[in-house]
Amino acid sequence: MAFADLRSFIGALERAGELRRVRAPVDPELEVTEITERCVKSGGPALLFEQVRGSEFPLAINLFGSPRRMALALGVADVDELAARLSRLLRAAQQPPRGVRGLLQLLPELRPLASMPPRRFRGAAPVQEVTWQGDRVDLGRLPLLRCWPGDGGRFITLPQVITADPRTKRRNVGVYRLQLHGPRELGLHWERHKGGAAHYAEARAAGRPIEVAVALGGDPASIYAAGAPLPEGLDEYAFAGFLRGAPVELCPAVSVDLEVPAHAEIVIEGTVDPGELRPEGPFGDHTGFYDPGGPYPVLRVSAVTMRRDAIYPATVVGRPPMEDYWLLGDTSERLFLPLLQLTFPEIAAVHVPPEGVANNLVFVALRKKFPGHAYKVAYGLMGMGLLSLSKVIVVVDEWVDVHRPAEAWWAALAQCDPARDVLLARGPGSVLDHALQGFSYGGKLVLDGTRKWPEELPGAAPGRGAWPEPLAMDPAVVERVTARWPEYGLGADPGPTGARRPGAAPDWSGEGGGPTSPGGVR
């Protein structure tokens, strides 16, 4: 099911029992954050605050704060369905059809491509029912949040910031926070590794202002796509069209030469003078620490358009897990695994746990085929998109469930010698990482927690014996206990503990040798 806009998604959440309306007055300064954090961390519902002090607009938050709500937002029972669809599409695109019959067999897989490009909305766009221009613009009327006590002001936290490359006119949509500086001024936090910052740098080098539109709300797939780690050149709204199975409808902005989502709740338009910078921040960020901010561009607002009964969407970031983990982290790692496997087919799974706050920790399950394979993959990830900002990469064998961090750490630590299996490197890092040795530059660590090949064991002690096999119960016993569980009088069956026998032994016939079985070293 493709939702046309934010309000239809909110209605679906309410019908599913996933949303609660809060009719008591609430303060956008700190109080909304405390309420929301308690709900997020306890697995609570999405929230619609109907009375926000100082504003006539209701505020929706935590709309995406669970796997179930993310699946509903993207119109599937489980996000893995979309990952499978993307995988089939990529395979179909890689295999030219043989004859008419082959083409007909591919059509079901290629059909989603037809829904990808955005299309022009015909008629009066819902988001332009009301227009503020000139002295009528007053961003203070919107229920912008001050989330944490040390924040430097009130912020827009769930925007789709739209720009166009000054040379190619190619669009970029990103989630970049904006700080309220005045009734018609916003500070734009453009991080140096993101697409919006690249457009700004082009405009600044040419000495020209750059036009910006900030969409709030719209269909849930577009909200997700704006923050997704897409490959360079893939339009965010085209990707949203693929996810929702229907094109995103855009309309011309009223004061800048950009297209905006016709079904958004609110759109803020304006220009950024490349010569104007102003202090922005501090801001309590997704790292769980304050980002001190710094000098950032200023968006001078020329118009605000909205629906007559607009709903203001927001999110709160902070010590994980928060809503952004489900909206961006968990969903993206599942959706983009097929894309990652195009370059690294040996990768079985990837997991960025919430404690890793997007950049600090990446677990990789590897189908290991030769000595040094863990480092080959780690080096590759350190040069790939936003994964290049990763600080710690832990590689384990394919049978390890990396989505269970306790199991991943157990396997990695049991199979590594820190003097042998740790690689230190340097490279780019997140601008939000306060621990790095330099601004967005610092160290990286790779931990090879895979089963070792003979070539990886220099100077091994004579008679050390075979590399041990992990404990796993006999599958027949597991099945028998499951069948007999009601006889034991122990209540509901919690299920097997997860101790599993590794997968089938890989083919070790390649040059250079390797373990003769998953449990021994030759």
Task: Briefly characterize the structure.
26% of the residues lie in helices and 22% in strands.
The appropriate CATH architecture of the domain at 6-313 is Roll
Shape: globular
DSSP helix count? 13
**Poorly predicted tracts of residues:** 102-107, 499-522
What is the top-level CATH class of the domain at 6-313? Mainly Beta
Q: What's the oligomerization state?
A: single chain
Helix content: 25-40%
User: Which band does the percent of strand residues land in?
Assistant: 15-25%
Number of strands: 23
The whole-number mean of residue pLDDT values reads 87
What is the CATH topology descriptor of the domain at 6-313?
Answer: Pnp Oxidase, Chain A
Given helix and strand content, the structural type is: alpha+beta
Properties at a glance:
522 residues, alpha+beta, Pnp Oxidase, Chain A, nine-stranded antiparallel β-sheet, five-stranded mixed β-sheet
